[in-house]
Amino acid sequence: MRFGVLGPLEVTATGHGGALATPQAPKIRVVLGTLLIRANAIVSVDTLIDELWSDDPPRTAPTTLQVYVSQLRKMLHAADPEAGRAALATRRPGYVLRLGPGQLDLTEFEELHARGGAAMQNRDYAAAADLQRRALALWRGPLLSDTPHGALLESAEVRLAELRVTALERRIRAELCLGMHRDLVGELQELATNFPMREEIHAHLMVALYRTGRQADALRAFARIRDTLAEELDIEPGRHLTQLHRRIRAGDATLLHGTGRAAATPALGRPPAELPAPDPAFTGRAGELARLVDKLLTAARDGGPVVVTGMAGVGKTALALAAARRTEALFPDGQLLVRLRSPAGEPLGPAEAVDQLLRQAGIRSPGAGGAAERLGLLRGLWQGRRMLLVLDNACSEAQIRALLPTAPGCVALITCRRPLAGLADARPLALDVPGPGDAAGLFTAAGGAPAGERAVAEIAELCGRLPLALRALAARRADPAELAARLRPEDGRLRELGEGRGSVGAVLVAAYREVPPADRRAFRLLGLLPPGPFGPDRAAAVLGVRPPAAGAAAESLVAAGLLARAEPAPDRSARYQLHPLLRLVAAERLTAEEPPEAVTEAVARLCAESAAPPEADPLEWFARDRAALVALVTRAHATGLWRETVTLADALTPALETLAAWEDWEHTHTLALDAAGRLDDDAARARMLRSLGDLAWQRRRLRQAQDFYERARLTADAAGDRAELARALAGLADLRLDAGAPADAAGLLARVPAEAEAGAERARSRFETSRAQGLLALETGRAEAAERYFGDCLELAAELRDPRLMAYARAALGSAGEAGEDPPEWVEVRPGVWRVRTVA
Asked: Which residues does UniProt assign to DNA binding (predicted)?
């Protein structure tokens, strides 16, 4: 069974003499066409529904889709009784159509086109032309021309139409290199009419006409496209076409050759070594591109290089090449690209880099010549010209110093991970990850699902919107919902992004290995920090140094592209943040390279620093760093730091209670309860049990609260902790008052120890006891007693310097004073918690 989508939809049956078995129903053709465009990848039910009904699906859409899939399976079975039905499988959250080699014309076209491009790179022009010709022969018309298009098929049609024209241009270019210009003139004249603004096709036509002795016709062809561009777009032809026009007017004899190195690229009027073909996946970056083109490169013509820095995989090369193409008019004499690393990622030496540039410029570097002779050749390259040199992935100033243009009008555009020392006159552009919209657009442009799909935004955030990761994920053509689900667990995310040389993880680890050992260790230890911004104090704690030294280490990592600056703290002090994927690399390297005892010590230092909330505004501190603090409790427990787990949970208790952070409260204190048990610390166990009882009481889980308070009472009693015993009894009394049993509550409060320990714990336990006594007095109509108890609460709250408890005590005192013979119907039993009086 074979499928065709490059034209009208076709299904060719197996074993029936090649008879067609194409479905006739439009909706079924839509389902099949969508599955074929995403062959061997899961297509979600949501995607299929969007493709079938766009923004207005019927209420029965899922059921109707199941009917269509069932009919499609029957059709596939009829076309291929052995394997047809099994080819369409249900895979949550949708379906996948499994196809083997040679079953789909689209995959065959893409393979032939790619092989043709590789042959062109190897200067095997005959093979390149043949492969592109075979690829183009597979097209029977526009993509799925008889099938209704939704968003996914529409975007696929646009992408593949562009790819088809690119294949055509490459085939013609290969044939020009083979000297077939006479055979091509007629075809090119027709193509120039069909594509009146496609400069590549008009360039091919001009070369073919010139080689056949029709110089005047070649110049008229240039005049036609120049007039068209001016009338339609109000622009001039690009540099390549303009330079080709000048060469034809001058009667350049090198354009007459059809083979050999000189003919391979000058057919388009370009320098011997050209920039790569435009990247079809490049999208967004409007602000960065405008700054690079309109500000930096324009100004750099007066001298000094332009340097684009950023972390590995952030898209520096793609941005630089896009900017280079937009500045053709600024640099009409050529644009050269030198990649300063080998395919394995190893930096080129300065001499190797010079030789590569000379080869790119078409200058034969003398093998026996010395450095002075090679540098002389380079100086001659720049003289009297306006050229752009893109130096990609530079490692050091020493590597590129000899390459920098020395003549006015020639500019070097350098990409590197860190600023290069010694380039004082450089114009910098620091590149960050793209915004959410641009990241989703890149995923779509690189072959992923449409940007509107809900899972696409999640995928972008899970990989930190890193372009290298987005491209790698999009290339898999997987269902976005399933892909997002696989990326959510942190422990396997780097593996999901690929393994081996060139993978996202390998690129990030390579960037890590390039920095000095001290920076590598700082990076590893900073991976212990929870996600989110952090300041020098927290970095100092985990690194075991003073804050100034921690700040210096952080700035060194920022320069290396391994750390980013975050929004400053409220006091304007610096803050930093690890990219989500770099944080995973740091954690991975920490496990592999750092001694376990060093990790334990770092976590202990971090816990000690975090367990001391600032006196000025502890609630603001907790609200800002809440996720990081909760994650740190988890890390301390996982590391076996039982005392630190308890201490940190104790420090978080007031903020967790005040902000009603119930889930975090339960998580941290459950871990701390376990840690207290491992320490055999009954006092700590009593605190955690009582705190969990308070939480259960607030959540109205009264049976659970009863259990926690009772266990806290017994544990505190055994530990001799009178403060916690008092608070546990007050909690049990609250439960009895809730149940309308004031006599039971009074009995419990009568068992409160006469005096608890000194200090804050004593004041807090006495506050809770007085609060419960005041509520009991209100419930039983003893207003004067209630006033006395709530007055005690106010004094104790002032001693504790707790504004929340002071506000509660004032309000309770006022309610008691107003009660008299008419007690209030509603009572505030704890700060912010109200209930109806239970006793008449």
From this structure: 1-99
Q: How many domains does the chain have?
A: 6
What SS3 class is residue 36?
Answer: helix
Residue 277 within a domain = no
Which of 637, 682, 632, 680 is CA-nearest to residue 652?
Answer: 632
Q: Which of 794, 787, 783 is nearest to 837 (CA)?
A: 783
Query: Residue 220: which CATH number?
Result: 1.25.40.10
Query: Tokens standing for 586?
Result: 């740091």
Q: How far apart are CA 482 and CA 453, in angstroms?
A: 12
* CATH assignment at residue 169: 1.10.10.10
Q: For residues 533 and 583, what is the distance between their CA atoms, to the nearest angstrom?
A: 12
Q: Which residues of 292-331 are buried (b: 16+ CB within 10 A; e: fewer)?
A: bbeebbeebbeebbbbbbbbbbbbbbbbbbbbbbbbbebb
**In a shared domain, residues 344 and 423:** yes
Same structural domain, 837 and 819? yes
Structure tokens at 261: 């190195």
Are 362 and 271 within 8 A, CB to CB?
yes
Asked if 40 and 31 touch (Cβ cutoff 8 Å), the reply is: no
Average pLDDT over residues 124-152: 90
Q: In this structure, are 107 and 63 located in the same domain?
A: yes
* Structural contact between residues 482 and 597, judged by C-beta atoms closer than 8 angstroms: no
Task: Please indicate, yes or no, whether residues 479 and 454 belong to a single structural domain of this protein.
Answer: yes
CA 519 from centroid of its chain's CA atoms: 24
Domain carrying residue 476 = 436-499
370, two tokens: 């010395």
End-to-end CA distance of the chain: 84
pLDDT in tens, 481-537: 899 999 999 888 998 888 877 789 999 999 999 999 999 999 999 999 888 889 899
**DSSP bridge partners of 337:** 390
Diameter over CA atoms, the chain: 116
Query: Residue 17 has what DSSP assignment?
Result: T
Q: How many CA atoms lie within 13 A of 678 on its CB side?
A: 15
> The CATH number of the domain where 363 resides is what?
3.40.50.300
Single out the residue in 160, 175, 190 at which a domain terminates.
175
Same domain for 722 and 785, yes or no, is yes
Question: At which of 175, 208, 225 does a domain end?
Answer: 175
Whether 633 contacts 652, CB under 8 Å: yes
The amino acid that residue 49 corresponds to is: I
Q: Using one digit for the tens of pLDDT, what is the confidence trace for 222-238?
A: 999 999 988 888 888 88
Q: How far apart are CA 269 and CA 248, in angstroms?
A: 9
The tokens 């107003």 sit on which residue? 818
How many other CB atoms sit within 10 Å of the CB of residue 452? 12
- pTM score of the predicted model: 0.62
